[in-house]
What we know:
single chain, about 400 residues, alpha/beta, Aspartate Aminotransferase, domain 1, Aspartate Aminotransferase, domain 2, 2 domains, 7-stranded mixed β-sheet, 5-stranded mixed β-sheet, 14 strands, globular, binds pyridoxal-5'-phosphate, SP_NH2Trfase/AEP_transaminase, alanine-glyoxylate transaminase activity, Serine--glyoxylate aminotransferase
Amino acid sequence: MLPLHSHPSGRHFLQIPGPTNVPDRVLRAIDNPTIDHRGPEFGELGKAVLAGMKKVFQTESDVIIYPASGTGSWEAALVNTMSPGDKVLMAETGHFATLWKKVAERLKLRVEFQEGDWRHGADAEQIGKRLAADSGHEIKAVCVVHNETATGVVSDVAAVRKAIDDANHPALLMVDTISSLASIDYRHDEWGVDVTVAGSQKGLMLPAGLSFNAISAKALKASETAALLRSYWDWKEMLAINPSGYFPYTPATNLLYGLYEALQMLFAEGLENVFARHKRHGEATRRAVQAWGLEILCRKPEEYSPALTAVMMPAGHSADAFRKTVLTHFNMSLGQGLSKVSDKIFRIGHLGDFNDLTLCGTLSGVEMGLSKAGVPHKPGGVQAALDYLSQTSKPYPA
Ligand code: PLP
């Protein structure tokens, strides 16, 4: 007989900022029998998800889907457009910007890292100044993380684009939207982004395992002369076969079923409504945090993330001990502080398949956890969120 493991009743609350909760509809879709990825049925699926992803990126240009986690699409963005020794300008917004920098360095790119304090977004003005000083156009790309998952800070991509244009500089603009796509308004074409990087496990409500590049005509042109070695990540192979809905190597067929279903859900809700929902839940969360008397890591209200909120622990208290209390008493996972802010912050994910009552449960778990773990705070955070949610709720369907 198999050993019996104790299992807490009810659903686990997975409130880390990704991977997010996968909706039942998407799980059921993934559960379908695998089909021949070279057969006629697959081509229709491939065409549908590629077209759907263009809508999500708000682009008319090409989109690539890799069977890979987000890190793969970081690498793909660089190896398809850069040559060994090229200089790239990256903004230090937090842990994930720092990891992308490491990828670039391993690829033998020369990285100029604009220092940040992990409490602000990319500084468009500083980027503009640096590019204006680069009269020889040595800098080949500017790389920015749209929503820094480690800090809950959103960078203003349109402002970075404007800074590049104002400096009259030809650098490519590359943006990581791994934790913003399909949660926070993002416009690949309108903002003049050359390569957008994304992943499946956050706003797209899928498990990890798919990642994306959206590509501008300028990036595609750059790929013709880019000399970094590439094979698996080569856009050319993909673009040659994708128009017929097929892939040059075995695609993650069952994840693509899930993607098809997730896209149906996002389009039925309407992307505008999806973005508004995330904004509203971000605001409700911050009202709770402020009522508790705790500090939000993000310094500037205009940079608050609608996808997650990073909360600073009062001095002398361990964020990880608090998270452990929440997990063991209330069966909820909260995001940990990463590298520089390890044990100093915890992160509340409020993105993906999420509604008012999911947020109420999440914030209740946090408030009870703060009391249980002896973290100094004021009562009333959940009530502040409830008041805001009930004042701003709308009947469904709208
Ligand atoms: N970029 C951001 C903003 C992320 O949040 C993550 C993962 O959480 C990554 C990149 C890396 O993606 P992955 O872990 O899927 O390789």
